[in-house]
Design goal:
This protein has 226 residues and is α+β, with helices and mostly antiparallel strands. It has two helices and ten strands.
Length: 226
């Protein structure tokens, strides 16, 4: 500056036009001002309502996305718990079949003996299990055929597909198609359904139903988290 006296309040020297109060370095922006749409330093009132509306739209989109993703996230959490937890058997309090051949009642599917079976006349027959209190059905184990022994397994017809209808305590109904291998032994079906009170299995396609044979289902076992 040239040293010329200037009255208070002037920003530039009246003689040489030099700045009387040079601006210092700008303070760094706070972290939240580095995020769009806050990152720009704007004049007062410049685009303020646009920024407000954009911010509200982003918040609304996040809320809507969270709402739709929440059921999927909860299902993933429960499925993970199913895999990490042990399992224990659940015994039904009631068993009823739409049809059964003499000597092979529906209750034989829960007697723990693989050489005794429910004998159904053919596809379309169903068996229904009811339970004393709601539980989370983690797994279902089906022993197909007349026996676990390979030489005895195929002496009766077997189911290749079952349609499962699961009723929960709130009245909701879940459907699942079960494909079974035509082999002796246990077959595990993962389910993961909450508050189960009833399970109905309907025989779909079958194989080996010739002559005097019947469709044999050896065992049906239900498991919940231990």
């Amino acid at each position: 500056m040239c040293g010329t006296p200037n009255p208070p309040g002037r920003r530039f020297c009246r003689r040489c036009a030099s700045p009387l109060l040079p601006a210092g370095d700008r303070a760094p922006l706070p972290w939240w001002r580095t995020i769009w749409p806050f990152r720009r330093r704007v004049r007062a009132g410049s685009g303020r309502w646009i920024r407000v509306l954009v911010t509200l739209a982003v918040i609304l989109a996040l809320c809507v996305g969270g709402f739709f993703l929440l059921p999927a996230g909860r299902a993933l959490f429960e499925d993970t718990r199913d895999k990490l937890s042990g399992a224990k058997a659940v015994t039904p309090v009631g068993i009823h079949a739409s049809a059964e051949v003499p000597g092979h009642p529906a209750k034989d599917t829960t007697d723990g003996l693989s050489n005794r079976y429910w004998g159904a006349p053919g596809a379309g027959a169903s068996i229904t299990y009811t339970f004393g209190k709601p539980f989370r059905l983690v797994d279902l184990i089906i022993t197909n055929g007349a026996s676990k022994e390979p030489e005895e397994y195929a002496r009766q017809a077997r189911a290749l597909r079952m349609d499962m209808e699961v009723t929960s305590a709130d009245g909701s109904v879940h459907h699942k198609e079960i494909d079974l291998s035509d082999k002796a032994g246990d077959q595990t079906i993962a389910t993961g359904i909450d508050a189960v009170v009833k399970v109905r299995l309907v025989l779909g396609s079958v194989t080996g139903l010739t002559g005097q044979r019947v469709v044999a289902v050896g065992e049906v076992e239900f498991f919940q988290r231990s």
